[in-house]
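input
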Amino acid sequence: MKALLKITLVLSLAFASTFLIIRLSGVLTEDDIKTWLEAATTINPWYVGLAVVSLLAVDLFIAVPTLTICILSGYLLGFPWGGLSASIGLLSAGLIGYWLSRAFGESILQIIVRSEEKREDAKAHFVQYGLSMILLSRSSPIFPEVCACVAGMTGMKFSKFYLAWTLNSIPYALIAAYSGSISDFENPKPAIYTMIGLYLVIWLAWFIYRKRN
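output
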């Protein structure tokens, strides 16, 4: 189990470093994202959908505020189009992470964990716990992308990964987008309550899972 934790930690730090670099450099802020999406709305709503999908997909490489983008998608496009765009973006990030890691993950695993025995141990533990990890990964920023990459690295069956990632992503995207669609600057409470509620529910699920396992 220690090997799996080490792999998860190293990947988390790698993803977090991109987030910190962007935050500290000020290259991409939430205000920037909001401005770009609003500007795209004035040109063509389809551009907003494309921008939402693109931003969420590149979250695998450059950490972006996922929940904020999903909410803005609903605010600018309405429901269900905002939810559809957010869902496609989240699904794309997971699929890219899985297949890239499936293709190149073994080399990365060998760098992180030198012992072949420990690598096999990590793969065995992810087979045992990976489904639950993916389903509950939205409890923390960065962790969903980490789980998608670990799934590819450890050779999790694609159908199993895709099912878990779909259940992990689509309800999350739809709920967030719907809250954005019924919010505005005068009444941002639905979006705020949704952000708090989503994390509370997922954290509660994590707590129950940890208690039982």
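quick obs: Residues 53 and 89 are 4 Å apart (CA to CA).
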